[in-house]
Hints:
By secondary structure, the chain is α/β, with parallel strands linked by helices. It has helices spanning 2-5, 8-12, 24-45, 56-64, 114-127, 140-174, 200-214, 216-220, 240-251, 270-284, 312-326, 347-350, 366-377, 388-393, 400-417, 424-436, 447-466, 501-522, 530-545, 567-570, 579-606, 608-621, 626-635, and strands spanning 52-53, 68-69, 76-81, 86-96, 103-113, 132-137, 182-184, 229-233, 255-259, 288-293, 333-339, 357-360, 473-477, 487-490, 623-625.
Amino acid sequence: MAEDNKNPQREQRPPGGNDPQLNWRGLVLFAIALALIGGAFLFRNGNFNQTEVITTSKFLQLIKDGQVISTDQKPLEIVVEEGRKTETITGFFKQKSATDGQEVEVPFRTPMFAPMNGAEIRDALTTAGLTYNVKPESNLLASAILSFLPIALFLVILYFFFRSQIKMAGRSAMNFGKSKARMLSKEKNRVTFKDVAGVEEAKEEVSELVDFLKDPKKFQRLGGRIPKGVLMVGPPGTGKTMLARAIAGEADVPFFSISGSDFVEMFVGVGASRVRDMFEQGKKSAPCLIFIDEIDAVGRHRGHGLGGGHDEREQTLNQLLVEMDGFDTQDGVIIIAATNRPDVLDPALLRPGRFDRQVNVSLPDVKGREEILKVHARRVKISADVDLSVVARGTPGYSGAELANVINEAALLAARKGLKAITMAEMEEARDKVRWGKERRSLALSEKEKENTAYHEAGHAILLELLEHTEPLHKVTIIPRGPSLGSTMWLPEEDKYTTRKNELLDQLVVTMGGRVAEEIVFGDVTSGARGDIGQATAIARKMVCEWGMSEKMGMVEYGEHDDYVFLGRDLGRSRGYSEATAQEIDREVRKLCDDAYARAKELLIKHRDRLEAIAKALLEYETLDGIHIREIMEFGELRNPPRKYKAPPPLPPEPTDTPGGTAEPTQEDLPPGGFPAPAPA
């Protein structure tokens, strides 16, 4: 890559995406022209001179008062300009000084209009016995030059200024069709496979690309053909972009990076032109890698839009298809693309010969999460008591970006506390903050709402301990965190990719626990169970329509279910079953929810004393770990209570215009895995 960077042809070529710089030279010339014009007007008006300009009436009064001086050394002069009817009288007059009262001689200048008062002033001078000299002056040429030279200079400078701007605009217009791909050099931000963890299978799949870029003849001797394109598919934050950069870092070749949205511009045909230019740059820098991030911005299905078919994005996609089908892999140019929406890509883009291989970059398992945590822990100071394997087991479903955020949040928490290294307590708090949000202890809740929240969360917690097919309880809190007023958190013992029917049925019962506890204790319910109801309905409907877990509806999928909605494809799609079937589905969903509600009610009534004990402990300590809940379930009381949180002194109440008021509905609960549901509207 170092040799490629020294290529003079590529160094002389300006980058396609550079915007025109500000023309400082033109601005300086423009300012100079304005200064010259201002100076000319000052010189013309004589404002810089000490000569006082007086009117003709004041001049006549000075003659009457005998203050006008007319001597051989300082004579009066009447300057007559040829071709003009104006005359100017120059000379000196006496005036007392304002400081010491002595008379001083002050130069003056009096312009007059000869046809109107020229004779009157001459008669006054003759009557007063003052002699004067008539001085003809011919300065038409100098006056004209003085008048028009600044304007001409201004126009010349303006011409050069706009000329340079037009040239720069022309260059910018020519660059519209240039590719905006940025080349990352070897020395800057180099990433290798050592920096990418948790995606071992994906690294194995792309490792042969590195071998090909290092030694292309190894594959060519056997007649093998390296894939023209590799499409990386996976959820956001799993490391697709970093893996592509690691390929370039390992192969030690130029790496061009561009986003899918960089192709499309407001001008027609620009996207296709940029695609052509991108492949031309790649061929000149071969062997190299071209990485297109978020390729779904230009690679969507053709003809599935809501507008017309002649679309600028479709033209860009057509050109991309042609270029990928036309260039040869023997050139050493490999296209790598990344997306988290492979379902919306055009089938022609995914066929063999274009993107030959799809690499799934999935969420890391427990071992992968530990490796990712180790990579990010190199940049921070970790205490010796921190066990990253424990943190990895407690973060199921976290992506690589979320794990990096956990390490960063833990470092910030430790710095805020003034610690020298990150301890396990900061890691636990950072994990909870990233997944469930930050604690909102400043949120003022009434005692009534706190009590309702405590019983609501106690209903969830006790059912998690009583039922057989549930995940271990992690923590219960009535401290507002994120969008919820209270949270019941549970963490699976291991990574799970399938869920059994009994586990789903028990999960429905746990979800109903909050509403049932409110009904048993208070005889009334609140709107805080909105998230529970939505979560239970979604689980029950998937059990009936997607997973075939209803005996009445059978092993049939009702409707087409995709993880993401693509409006251009799904808008005209029918649901695929009759109205009578829809009614049966609704009845089955209702039956699953009702059965879970009845079962939850039966268990909570039977263990009412434990429900009371857990709620009272929550009101006293606000947060209980799973071990505390199990202690109450076993002994009926909390024998090893947690440390109480010392709240800061409350602020004085602010005056309000409306007494009382309505409070927001109570707490929201957590979907599977402990995710907080949205706050009630």
